[in-house]
Amino acid sequence: MQIKPDEITSILKSRIEGLDQDGGADLSEVGTILSVADGIARVHGLESCMSLELLEFPNDVTGLAFNLESDNVGAVLFGPWESIDEGDTVKRTGRLLEVPVGDQLLGRIVDPLGNPLDGKGEINATATLPAEGPAPGVVMRQPVEEPMLTGLKAIDAMVPIGRGQRELIIGDRQTGKSAIGIDAIIHNRHDETLRCVYVAIGQRMSTVVGVADTLEEHGALENTVIVAAAANEAAPIKWIAPYAGAAMGEYYRDSGQHAVCIFDDLTKHAHAYRQLSLLLRRPPGREAFPGDVFYLHSRLLERAAKLSDDLGGGSLTALPIIETQAGDISAYIPTNVISITDGQIFLDQDLFLGGTRPAIDVGTSVSRVGGSAQPKPMKKVAGTLRLDLSQYRELQSFAQFGSDLDPETQQTLNRGERLVETLKQNEQDVMETHDQCAIIYAGTSGWLDRIKTERIGDFQTFLLDRLHSDSSDLMDRIAGGEWEDSTENELSEAIGQAIDDFGPDFDSEGNELEEGESERTRGGGEEESDSDSEEESGDDEEQESEEKEGAAA
Ligand SMILES: Nc1ncnc2c1ncn2[C@@H]1O[C@H](COP(=O)(O)OP(=O)(O)OP(=O)(O)O)[C@@H](O)[C@H]1O
Ligand SMILES: [Mg+2]
To answer: Which of 21, 33, 372, 438 has an alpha carbon within 20 to 30 A of 517's alpha carbon?
Structure first.
């Protein structure tokens, strides 16, 4: 005989009707498992269950009401769901899924429900927030105005990110996507008003531990929460991870501080959601993703915001990461996330393999709102950088075919080559904004044209040493946001001096100098004292013309 759960409940209902409140059970609060498989349970009863409400299963299993259907509730399960059976009782909790938030989580690796994974003991967080909090509305926001610096020249100069912005990092496998997020965390390690949340979705646990070690090495772990949903976790855990991470960031946003969340990566997140949806028998659409996969990421990234001053002026910046296949940014998930974010940093595999790292493709990378948050000196020195580089890229492919180039083209190529070299940066080698400004200024103002491309890296180190020892006052002023004509002249002069001491390869007309003609023999990094005094007298004239050239260019 086939027994329908509906019938059983109605019989039971009639039997226990009349029981008083204390002794009886409210039937809308308790249900029975109809089936359980693949981390998904179908539960009968639970008539007034809310969407995304937490459900209590036996054996410490937690469920989340995902599908509310006419005669049952589809729930995703967290915890050892193998231990529950058909017929077990399920209780409503009346609560939405909440995760622990607050400073106690800093320096820790946690799972998306806030349980420690690093063996460093209990986390006694006092506050919790709903994992799926609503995004702030329009009137609660204000435009992005403070910079969220990454310490990477190419990004801070050309695709600046502001606090409260959503900037996508997109690229093929192994192109340095995660490295950008990690560098951003390292760069902000001493800023206690900007907390970092790194959400690792579907990565190997060993990779996550590696990230934690790197951060610890740089003293950045104390400022960071790592939320990990490793590759071997069930789909529901991976699905909830970025929402939990966002909630941890929102705690700071709502208390007038700042946070940045790195979601590494949302491609795997979408895959987990697809898996969940198929198991729950939601209809598959394009690429078998359910129809609401856009909403999956939009409601997550909408939570990034710069709040109005009335609400404390806090911010949550989101740096989602998306992996592409063979550079195809027109696939379903990449186009979705590109349209949700305020710009993207596109990493190109050819550039990466060619040694241009970070492998940022200037043509396709943009930041739509961060420009207004860029520090003034950076804005000034990097003004023409994008244009110069785009011109260079264009000419570069064209110049491969022609041998005779007119001097102007050759000059653009020379400049571009040096700018590309200038923007190269090793991972975990973050740089302060005033240092970045000095280096980029040396490139865009034309001083670097006098140095061979392969020596530019050495010259940068030499220049920064020199500026910090001899012009520390100037550097302090640039760090404080000053950029007047006088600042520029002073910097230009200092760079010219440094080039002379470093030993230029070309004179101001661009003619190559012989070994003997330059003061190159002294090389980079040696004592500057003797070089200073020796040159003071003889080089004045030459130097003046150089300065003119520098300023003109
Ligand atoms: N700026 C850089 N300079 C030198 N090496 C770098 C740089 N950025 C990344 N790398 C190296 O390149 C490799 C790939 O970097 P990373 O793991 O950040 O890439 P990814 O795109 O996140 O890869 P995956 O697709 O596997 O997640 C790593 O070995 C890393 O050390
Ligand atoms: Mg990665």
So the answer is: 438
